[in-house]
Amino acid sequence: MNLVIWNVTFKWNIIIPKSFDFDIVESLSKTWDKNIYFFWETEINSSKDFLEKELKKIWEIIDYDISISTEDKIEFLPYDYEEWVYELVSFEWEEVNFEEIVERFKEHDAIFSVREAEISKKFWNRVIKVDFVY
């Protein structure tokens, strides 16, 4: 199984069917679009396939940020979340290092995951994202 972390904004205030078997944290934007942070396991092997085979065909996507373990480094840190508040911090610098970011945050209470994301347009390496769920 592959791990998937996805931060996505859907057009309008969509309703996620209970038949979808994944954990989410959700909120509404000021324009009533739905922001959702998903995390779960899948047998799909690429982010492109994931987008085409899963949610993109059902709802209109405004923006997204997806990490899948077949393409990106992902580290889930042990944490028991309760209130379902989500925040995202991105690290982008010439010498940013995935392992160093994991080490820096592994003792922090609200860190849920550390993951590689898109290629930095400024530094040509990977942006490292830290997802907080508390």
What is the topology?
Layout (H helix, E strand, L loop, with lengths): L1 E9 L12 E6 L5 E9 L4 H7 L7 E8 L5 E3 L9 E6 L6 H8 L5 E9 L6 E8 L1
Please, could you describe this protein's structure?
With 134 residues, the protein is mainly β. The chain folds into 2 domains: 2-68, no CATH class; 74-133, no CATH class. It is 11% helix and 43% strand. It is built from 2 helices and 8 strands; from the N terminus they run βββαβββαββ. The chain has helices at residues 47-53, 98-105; strands at 2-10, 23-28, 34-42, 61-68, 74-76, 86-91, 111-119, 126-133. The strands form 2 sheets. A 4-stranded antiparallel beta sheet has the order 2-3-1-4, with no helix packed on it. The relative contact order is 0.22. The mean pLDDT is 85.
Label this structure with key terms.
single chain, mainly beta, 11% helix, 134 residues, 2 domains, 4-stranded antiparallel β-sheet
Describe the structure concisely for a colleague.
This protein is mostly beta strands and 134 residues long. The protein is 11% helix and 43% strand. The protein is built from 2 helices and 8 strands.
